[in-house]
């Protein structure tokens, strides 16, 4: 495959993804996608946000936090197992926090989808 045919990462726009079997892997952000998705290119304009298990998320879903998350300015972390109801997806967030939500005891905050699973 020539350099002109090599895809860029859809998450961080890195020019350095490599192919491993049937997957493309970005060494900079760790994003993985199938060879089929890479050949489609930008034909699919809608970005699908997936949880830690690969399940697609939608606005209004309830998710569960999969690991303790430190919160800046808070004395305690968001504990693993915390349920978060009525999430809102923010696909083009510049800081990578693609879920906007309210968590009891913490208030409004952003979460990364890799740290939650669909409930």
TrEMBL record:
One Pfam family hit: Zn_Ribbon_YjdM
A single GO molecular function term of this UniProt record: hydrolase activity
Location of the Protein YjdM C-terminal domain: 49-119
Limits of the Protein YjdM N-terminal domain: 7-34
Entry keyword set: Hydrolase
Record carries keyword Transmembrane helix: no
Taxonomy, superkingdom: Bacteria
Name of this chain's protein: Phosphonoacetate hydrolase
Organism: Pseudobacteriovorax antillogorgiicola
